[in-house]
Amino acid sequence: MRAPAPAGTDTYTHRLNPGVTMRRLYLIEPVVGVYAFAMFMTYPLLQQYIYRRLWTQLTSTPYPSSQNFSHCEDGNTSLSSQHDAVQREASLFFLYSELCFLFPSLVMSLLLVSCSDHCGRLSHFSLSLNLLLGASFLTGLLGGPTSLIGGCFAYLADRCSDGRKTVRMALLDMLLGLLSGLASLCTGFFIRAAGFTWPFLTAALLHFLNLAYVLCGLRETVEPGGPVAGPGGPSWEAVRRRFQGAYLLLAASPRRRRTLLVLTLLAFAFYKVAKLGGMSIFILYELNTPLCWSELLVGYGSALSTAIYMGSFAGVYILSRCLRDAYIVLFGLLSVAAGMIVAAFAKTTLMMFLVRLPLLFSIMPTPVLRSMMSKMVRSSEQGAVFGCVAFVEMLSVGVAFTVFSSTYAATVSWFSGFSFLLASGLTLIPMALIGSVLCLRLDVDDDTQVLTNKDDDEIPGETLQMPSWDTS
Asked: What pTM did the predictor assign?
């Protein structure tokens, strides 16, 4: 059963203590904003910290943080070979760290976000608190960023009509980008002023404040449908049903909707591999010769990337008034391809900053594809669809880091921009998939709405179940 949806604040009876009435908000944006700021404060920090540690170990010399550009560009072969060695080891280290994070998070992201259809949207936010910032395996075991972000988009889908979903999700993505860019900029100043300790402590404090807001200030949009744990521990039957919900989202759907969902999920996956793979090596590329950026320039570059999120939001807001969603996705994919090609040949600081210009609309496919998938399913399946999206996104992140980290390590000595060309080439796959959707007219709103309305006419609260077989 859905909770009523007042416009602003409203009273909320705590489900664990019916006698306690709280004042809570239907405002998910602060959760995403604070989490993005805290997470992206530590992400470039970890990369630069690992890079400096590896430099000290491999060269037995202090990291030349005060070096100038002439020293970097003077053609010193010894310095260049040192950079190549550190670049290879750093990219491989990031690959191992990502693999430790990937495997547990694949299962947990699908389970936690799917559970939100029955246990409430707020049930898994507390698990995403990054208590041990360097423990990739533990972070993945608790669901990781994809679980929290997926839950936030499912929460937003509960609160928006189909006509507003695309723009609201683009707004949430823009907020994610703006705060992450600001955090990256602050990290550079933090490192220069106070070393590596204070940024970690600040991020941990922000995570605790965010958790407090979720637990005490954010109102639930879904009434819990039943416990996931009993007196003796977790109810494995309930866990099994959550996985079945994600499976039945595809298996029990009409063929037209199933085809559209599969094509859209595949396009989303390959888009994420191409974009995240290319963007993941930006900092390593900037630290390498001939750029040799300092921590402040890395922060400025990351902060400038916020323009990408603002441009993408403006693009979605304007284009959604005159174009179908699939055309907006194609436009964003062209932006990714163009930006990666320019990055491959950027050898000066000015050119590296200007790389963000062709990438200005590269974020548009993310909210638009999420909105397309959300519009395909009924309200009681939003958690299942965003669970699938979180699973696919996490798998894409793992594949992207694995492929691009190993590729960059293998090609950095002869052409460090090769990985960007690979990312540009990979965008052809989601372009072809979205082109298929357009050719088959699978994205026509009327047909999708008919399928969704037909599903919504079913008995409220009733969900599909897989047949059970008696194995006794």
From this structure: 0.75
